[in-house]
Amino acid sequence: METIVEISGLGKSFPQKQGQPVTILRDVNLTIGAGQTLCVMGESGCGKTTLGKIIAGLSDYTTGSYRFCGKEVSQLKGKEWDAFRESVQLIHQNPYESLNPASMVFDIIANPIRRHRKITKIPELYEEVTRLLKLVGLTPVEDFVDKYPAHLSGGQRQRVSIARILAMNPKLIVVDEATSMIDTSLRISLLSTMKQIQQELGVAYFFITHDLALGKYFAKGQAAMVMYLGRIVEAAGMDQLVANPCHPYSRAIISAAVGDTGILEDAQFRKYSLKDADIASFGNMPSGCPLHPRCPECIDGVCQKTNPPAFTVETGHEVCCFHYQTK
Ligand SMILES: Nc1ncnc2c1ncn2[C@@H]1O[C@H](COP(=O)(O)OP(=O)(O)OP(=O)(O)O)[C@@H](O)[C@H]1O
Ligand SMILES: [Mg+2]
What we know:
eight-stranded mixed β-sheet
């Protein structure tokens, strides 16, 4: 399988008005294969969107390497940069803001086809818009082409956003909490349409969520990682991660999600919780392992001193926790 995204040792700092820059992402390593899904989970503010924007080329990185289809993204210029930006698209969280309220659905989807693929004849455009609307499940197509965003529900708007993105033939779509503003009852149906699109077109997804149950549903049989304070603390197959979470933070978030929707009923660690210490912030990172003040498994004299590197639990399953260090 072709690897399209290769990120290693990546870091991101934001300059502050006063004082030192604040480092948000540290030593991020990940790969995404063509047509595959990588799901990233973690609590609010841990850096998921920051990473998603870097992957989509909407933000730069401070250190490390990000290669897209073998080429270092920070070195891309001119036509190569434009091609990269077309290949990676981002679905916004808010379908109310991402669509032009003054454009009809037909134009919203036809405009990028005109611009990027140089198709201008109306019958050809109509054929392509029809194909895309069918792919995203907006049928019968005649009921939607002449509607404005205000006529559509949140779920339908998000489907139009996806059709517009697909008009550019992306290789990878960054999906940043794309269903969080949609009625719960419509979420699974939208996610299942996106999975079907993946099977038909072979597009890859970087799927960002703080909702583990949604992550487990969307990335079943695919790859997943858990982020805490800007670091990836555990990476594994999604099913492996839910069946055998090794990092104390992963155990705690899985335990907290059980019972929400029934999707995680098979999860272990149902009653696992962290200590009630203050949650650290990027400006005030604890020494050693950033979780240690909240960690019930903290090894005295070890976890306070050194930030654990990634240890291999089994093939394809890595965890940054000293409990998995093999001597
Ligand atoms: N442009 C910026 N300048 C300074 N700090 C920023 C900037 N963008 C993000 N941050 C900080 O980076 C941290 C991570 O933010 P980010 O939006 O990536 O988190 P997140 O995991 O997506 O959170 P959420 O689940 O709430 O969407 C936050 O502390 C945020 O304040
Ligand atoms: Mg976010």
